[in-house]
Amino acid sequence: MPKQKPHEQQKQPKYRQIADYLRAGIMDGTYPSGQPLPSEETLAKQFSVTRPTVRQGIAELRASGLVEVMAGRGGFVRSPHSRPSLTRPRGVRREPDGRYVEADGIRWANAEEPTATRTDAPVALADLLRVPPGEPLFTYDVLQTAEGSPLRQLHRTYVPFSVLVGTKFEEEPPPPAPKLYEALSALGHELHFTEYVRTRMPLPDQAEALRMTQGVPMLQLFRLTSDHHGKPLAVEEISFPGDDSEIGYPLIITEL
């Protein structure tokens, strides 16, 4: 990307000049990852602006995920090139006793009782589950915390009513995942899993529940559970902060 000419820079608002100046310093290593940015007072004097104007420029960098502001300590650099501190291997493993566990080995505890509701399938979810839009779904929502770690995630389970026709779960609700896997296996299903990964900015209540700072994106995993015929049986939606985590998948080599 070509550098802006001096007269083009002068046309920009001061807060944008500050944001561009700091962004360039982060990208070229002038301000290394984990190190503090110049203080608001220093930047205000350098650009002959007020401190609120400096904060507006820094807010742009927060929104793009390059800067984290800590109360009482100022702004710190998030490197766009550094590795996250946590890699979560993805996959599902079935134990000899029939339990299904996550490949990452993290022990998750519910911070509260799962909230059970009936949801009418929105178009996107209906397409994934191959059910008509509006079909009723059993839905469970719960906030989970990791044992011995500050990690938090939002976990949601969707099960179409039509999957449970002719089973005992017509009279009683099915359990949420991962117990759901055992229940589906007991019904005679051979389970297969596919995961889809998305990223988006969290809604305010999600950011609060996950204790996310402003400007941090959220990673979302949608795990589709199908039978051996490829018929979708359920979907899990797992959401967690995307600023210091990455996910890893084994790739399967196929031959034509």
Main sheet, how many strands, which sense, barrel? 7 strands, antiparallel
- Number of alpha- plus pi-helical segments: 7
Within the CATH hierarchy, at the fold level, what is the topology of the largest domain? Chorismate lyase
Name the helicity range: 10-25%
Report the uncertain regions: 1-8
C-alpha end-to-end distance:
42 Å
Got a strand count? 13
Oligomer: single chain
Radius of gyration: 23 Å
How much beta, percentage-wise? 25-35%
Question: What is the CATH class designation of the largest domain?
Answer: Alpha Beta
Compressed to H and E, one letter per element, the order equals: HHHHEEEEEEEHEEHEHEEE
Q: How would you state the average pLDDT, rounded? A: 87
> What form results from the Cα inertia axes?
elongated
What name goes with the CATH superfamily of the largest domain? Chorismate lyase-like
How many domains is the backbone divided into?
2
